[in-house]
């Protein structure tokens, strides 16, 4: 194995979600740099991996980098892991990867679980374009300011949130995005109490408030982009026009749809015409 840094994803709950390649890499490297060595020791024990561990976390990353670079330059291979999921994704590692790259040492990703992607894959919101926003600020005033900047973003927004802040964050989202914005809630993904739900922000706030269990564990909140409502409206318009066109003329269908959707008759007529062909 040529000396290199492997960035290895580990499970976000269910231990079976580690890849064969991750296990093999963790067994074969000379050293594993872990966010929390005690936590990672349990994972390694489970998979019978005996590679030595060293701590590399937010508080010692800058100082640790030099030591790890020296080991890599000396020909040792190192794997970087975090407590769960993919390192660098709301986890330490960026400074290390950048420094290793600057020394022309190879950095190899060993992909696997990531809560943001797992959540996005199951909540049923548009996934063609999305923005990973990580954790929102803990102070409400700063959180509102951050959300305000995202208000008109039309791609899906992915947030990580701590359980004790979930309700306050959802309430701030209602303030900025409005109560009807669609939202996905992915809690305890791959674990016993896994909960995946798609609803509106107002309904989510009510539900999370009334069921305290929803304020526990690990949570990903996925908010539909600013255009999602428009898309839905368009879908509904098509549906109703198609039904109307079975019984009435294009002109009448357009008139009824324009009244129902409070849109210009010309717009409804154009769409009705397209659908009738
Ligand atoms: N690096 C990790 C990843 O790849 O997803 C994320 C680490 S970040 C410190 C931890 C946050 O990720 C949690 O607060 C939660 O928002 C989210 N998270 C991690 N595991 C999760 C799970 N099983 N279910 C839902 N969210 C999870």
Automatic annotation (TrEMBL):
<keyword id="KW-0963">Cytoplasm</keyword>
<dbReference type="InterPro" id="IPR053910">
    <property type="entry name" value="RsmI_HTH"/>
</dbReference>
<protein>
    <recommendedName>
        <fullName>Ribosomal RNA small subunit methyltransferase I</fullName>
        <ecNumber>2.1.1.198</ecNumber>
    </recommendedName>
</protein>
<keyword id="KW-0808">Transferase</keyword>
<feature type="domain" description="Tetrapyrrole methylase">
    <location>
        <begin position="5"/>
        <end position="205"/>
    </location>
</feature>
<keyword id="KW-0489">Methyltransferase</keyword>
<dbReference type="InterPro" id="IPR000878">
    <property type="entry name" value="4pyrrol_Mease"/>
</dbReference>
<dbReference type="InterPro" id="IPR018063">
    <property type="entry name" value="SAM_MeTrfase_RsmI_CS"/>
</dbReference>
<dbReference type="InterPro" id="IPR014777">
    <property type="entry name" value="4pyrrole_Mease_sub1"/>
</dbReference>
<dbReference type="GO" id="GO:0070677">
    <property type="term" value="F:rRNA (cytosine-2'-O-)-methyltransferase activity"/>
</dbReference>
<comment type="function">
    <text>Catalyzes the 2'-O-methylation of the ribose of cytidine 1402 (C1402) in 16S rRNA.</text>
</comment>
<dbReference type="InterPro" id="IPR008189">
    <property type="entry name" value="rRNA_ssu_MeTfrase_I"/>
</dbReference>
<dbReference type="Pfam" id="PF23016">
    <property type="entry name" value="RsmI_C"/>
</dbReference>
<keyword id="KW-0698">rRNA processing</keyword>
<feature type="domain" description="RsmI HTH">
    <location>
        <begin position="234"/>
        <end position="275"/>
    </location>
</feature>
<keyword id="KW-0949">S-adenosyl-L-methionine</keyword>
<dbReference type="InterPro" id="IPR035996">
    <property type="entry name" value="4pyrrol_Methylase_sf"/>
</dbReference>
<dbReference type="Pfam" id="PF00590">
    <property type="entry name" value="TP_methylase"/>
</dbReference>
<dbReference type="InterPro" id="IPR014776">
    <property type="entry name" value="4pyrrole_Mease_sub2"/>
</dbReference>
<comment type="similarity">
    <text>Belongs to the methyltransferase superfamily. RsmI family.</text>
</comment>
<dbReference type="GO" id="GO:0005737">
    <property type="term" value="C:cytoplasm"/>
</dbReference>
């Amino acid at each position: 194995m040529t000396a290199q840094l492997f960035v290895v994803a580990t499970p976000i709950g269910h231990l079976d979600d580690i890849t064969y390649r991750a296990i093999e890499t963790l067994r074969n490297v000379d050293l594993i740099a872990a966010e929390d060595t005690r936590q990672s020791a349990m994972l390694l024990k489970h998979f019978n991996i005996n590679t030595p561990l060293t701590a590399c976390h937010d508080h010692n990353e800058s100082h640790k980098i030099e030591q790890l670079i020296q080991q890599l330059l000396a020909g040792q291979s190192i794997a970087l892991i975090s407590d769960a999921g993919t390192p660098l994704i709301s986890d330490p590692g960026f400074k290390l990867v950048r420094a290793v790259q600057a020394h022309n040492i190879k950095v190899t990703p060993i992909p696997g679980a990531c809560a943001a992607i797992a959540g996005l894959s199951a909540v049923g919101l548009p996934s063609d374009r999305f923005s990973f926003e990580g954790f929102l600020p803990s102070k409400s005033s700063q959180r509102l300011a951050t959300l305000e900047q995202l208000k008109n973003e039309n791609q899906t927004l992915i947030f990580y949130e701590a359980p004790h802040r979930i309700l306050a964050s959802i309430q701030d989202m209602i303030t900025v995005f409005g109560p009807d914005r669609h939202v996905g809630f992915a809690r305890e993904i791959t674990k016993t109490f896994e909960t995946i739900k798609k609803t509106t922000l107002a309904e989510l706030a009510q539900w999370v408030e009334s069921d305290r269990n929803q304020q526990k564990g690990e949570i990903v909140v996925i908010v539909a982009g600013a255009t999602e409502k428009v898309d839905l409206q368009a879908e509904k318009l098509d549906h109703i026009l198609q039904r109307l066109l079975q019984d009435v003329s294009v002109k009448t269908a357009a008139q009824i749809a324009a009244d129902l959707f409070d849109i210009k008759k010309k717009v409804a007529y154009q769409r009705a015409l397209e659908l009738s062909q």
